[in-house]
Amino acid sequence: MYLVVGLGNPGKQYEATRHNMGFDTIDVLVERHKIPQGGVKFNAMYGSGFIGGEKVIFMKPLSFMNLSGGPVQEMAAYFKIDPESELIIIQDDIDLEPGQLRIRKQGSAGGHNGLKDIIGRLGTQKFMRVKVGVGAKPKGWDLADHVLGRFSADDRKLVDEAIELAADAVEKIITDGPDAAMNEYNRKRVTE
User: Fold this and answer.
1) Is 130 helix (H, G, I), strand (E, B) or coil?
2) C-beta of residue 124 within 8 angstroms of C-beta of residue 84
3) Are strands 87-93 and 128-133 parallel, antiparallel or unpaired?
4) What fold, for 2-185?
5) What is the pLDDT at residue 129?
6) What is the maximum alpha-carbon separation in the chain?
7) Quick one: CA dihedral 66, 63, 163, 144, positive or negative?
8) Which residues are part of a known binding site for tRNA?
9) What is the DSSP letter of 67?
10) Torsion from C-alpha of 20, 25, 28, 30, nearest 10 degrees
11) Which residues partner with 89 through β-bridges?
């Protein structure tokens, strides 16, 4: 069984912002696999279904980004998820250009407060991440203003394609393993 978590912020005012790449990717996966809404548990929206015969719990924490760790830790404990082999976090990444993806099997939070909270609550950095590039903040900008902002029309096209690729990458991790997914998607970049 896998727990696939899309990071983001709940509420209409945060829809389509840079920080909601995880939520947007979960939406694509839920649509593709016709996942019924399971309700709200542990301060998170969730639903369950199957990808390639493997049971998957899809989750969107409702705690706001910086407090994502509590809902993730509680859901993982409830479903007896091994973070090192059964947890996949989908997140935005300012170190990647819009349209870029990067899959990692472990690593630090890299300044991402949602990841920092998850690492703190789980007590490990060893879990899979699918990172969706949102671009670096412009010089002189506040980081919060950047990640809570929206994309230009050109970047939005790249990001929409990257979200579809991120959903593909999650499917590949589940069906063929993280190494196969890294080999395929860490080289890809959406092009204009």
Assistant:
1) strand
2) yes
3) parallel
4) Rossmann fold (3.40.50)
5) 97
6) 48
7) negative
8) 14, 64, 66, 113
9) G
10) -100
11) 5, 129
Residue keyed to tokens 């899959």 = 103
Residue type, position 154, single letter = D
Which residues fall in the annotated binding site? 14, 64, 66, 113
Q: Is 100 helix (H, G, I), strand (E, B) or coil?
A: strand
Q: CB of 84 within 8 A of CB of 122?
A: no
Q: How far apart are CA 93 and CA 112, in angstroms?
A: 8
Ranges under pLDDT 50 in the chain: 192
Q: Tell me the residue length of the chain.
A: 192
Instruction: Establish whether 19 is a catalytic residue.
Output: yes
- Specify whether the CB–CB gap between 11 and 149 falls below 8 A: no
| Residue 160: both structure tokens together | 């929409």
Marked catalytic residue, from 19, 33, 112, 146: 19
Q: Taking Cα atoms as reference points, which of 181, 156, 191, 170 lies closest to residue 88?
A: 170
Q: In terms of pTM, does the model score above 0.90?
A: yes
